Amino acid sequence: MMRKSEYALWALLVLAVLAAGTTMVSLARSQSASAANSEIYKQLDLFGEVLERVRADYVEQPEDSELIESAINGMLTALDPHSAYLTPKHFRDMQVQTRGEFGGLGIEVTMENGVVKVVSPIEDTPASRAGLMSGDLITHLDKEQILGLTLQEAVEKMRGPINSPISLTVVRKGVEDPFEVKVVRDMIHINPVKYNAEGDDVGYVRLTTFNEQTTENMQKAIEDLKKQLGPNLKGYIIDLRNNPGGLLDQAISVSDAFLDQGAIVLTRGRNLEETQRSNARTGDITDGKKIVVLINGGSASASEIVAGALQDHHRATIIGTRSFGKGSVQTIIPLGSNGALRLTTARYYTPSGRSIQAKGIAPEVVVEEELPEELKKKVEIQGTRGEANLRGHLKGEYEAQEGEEVEEESGSSSYVPQDKEKDTQLNYALDLLRGIKSVDTETKKKAEAN
What we know:
It contains 13 helices and 19 strands. The chain has helices spanning 4-15, 27-31, 38-57, 64-77, 88-99, 126-129, 151-158, 214-229, 248-256, 302-312, 373-382, 424-433, 441-449, and strands at residues 84-86, 101-104, 107-112, 115-121, 137-141, 144-145, 165-171, 179-184, 186-189, 193-198, 202-207, 235-239, 263-268, 276-279, 290-295, 317-320, 328-334, 340-349, 365-366. The strands form 4 sheets. Strands 3, 4, 5, 6, 7 and 8 form a 6-stranded antiparallel sheet that branches. A 6-stranded mixed sheet has the order 10-11-12-15-16-19, sandwiched between helices. Strands 1, 13, 14, 17 and 18 form a 5-stranded antiparallel sheet that branches.
């Protein structure tokens, strides 16, 4: 059994709790730390004592790795809701999401009655080439039943190295018996951009996330819409509703695509010298066409950077409801073979210096979607979810008038109707671009006042 002093040293190594300017090379050097740091080592002694007691006296034998991981997570979640420890597996999953590509089958799936249901095969992927269809039920993977697995566990089994085979047992409506489908995994690209022409005069572009593919695919979408609509093109709708964010550099490059000059976003860390400013370069891929940006309570982080930049430069009209209000920047710090640390390192501000943290982006035209009855009841009980509602959230920085108290307010409904005919926000944007409606001046003033 380790002595308490050894536990303190182990805890110091695992938690990496070091004061600025202090490098731990050996125990002797740590013992000669300045008086200003002595309190840290006292607390680590306490941690070591508690850990020793838990390992020795807890009713069941605990796993040391789980204890340490829980301690690390407890330290980070006490900072804010977005700082966290990523295990090696979670770190790999995050890298897959940000790259937007992985070895897999190419199907969108959900879980139904304990088996995997194919929502849709992605075009030109192993799944579509193998003949999988929407509505197919996958009951076994390599002859092992799915029943009892979570959706995430089943998805992980379907992913794997490129060129590796997998056998799916499929139940299809209209086919009497289950049948086997052999699929060879290939590189799957997650396209975060969906687009189409609305009528013969408006280009609609939806960004679902900000991964490494977002800017490039958005530019391709804009170019394709230009060709489709030609001289009839009145403008573009950029739909950021329920886009949870992603990579900061992609938010900057997406904003840059619509701006000719000026700041895009400011990021400020703990120290003033850490302030960074990202500026737009010359060139607007829309050739100055009108832009409407749609946001709602599910628009967060990178989405808010884009909406805030285009709003401050009067480059777009923002329509919808108040965004989530996540105005902080997380840095991913790899920890070798031990995963990674996701740490909040800065706040970000719009070009005019507005902090979005726990405040969000207020649209110039507030348009609410009509909620179904079951959702109305849920909202009445639970309310809307935004950054300001998260326990332990980072406080925003706002310029208040003398004697004024600035109330935190972020989030709104994230409901978007599947039927475009019932999509009030989308239809308002279409009417605005077509000149059927105009931005109400008083509405705009009220939104800016909030």
